[in-house]
Amino acid sequence: MLNNIGLPGILMIAVVVLVLFGRGKISSLMGEVGKGITSFKKGVSDGKAEIEAAAADDAVDVTPEAAPEAKDPKS
């Protein structure tokens, strides 16, 4: 259904929306959409950083410890 709209249809919808809401209202709406996208991206990066920090805290050091030196039984 959406594939049949084409460029002229999209332009007509844009003109109707512009006439109905006005340039100022659309401009402020797009500004809010931009802020929302920025906030979403920040939230995603904060969540990713939190997950990576939790994974780093849960990481276990598996390096073998140095064995204590064995004493010579003859001494």
Q: If you had to describe this structure to a student in words, what would you say it looks like?
A:
There is one protein chain. The protein is mostly helical. Helices cover 69% and strands 0% of the residues. It has helices at 6-21, 23-58.
Beta strands, count: 0
Oligomer: single chain
Percent helix:
55-70%
Distance between the termini: 92 Å
N-to-C SSE string, H for helix and E for strand: HH
**Nearest-angstrom radius of gyration?**
31 Å
Class per helix and strand makeup? mainly alpha
**Largest pleated sheet:** none
Q: Average pLDDT across residues?
A: 83
Please work out how many helical segments DSSP would assign.
Answer: 2
Shape: rod-shaped
Which regions contain 5 or more consecutive residues with pLDDT less than 50? none
Determine the strand fraction and express it as a percent band.
under 5%
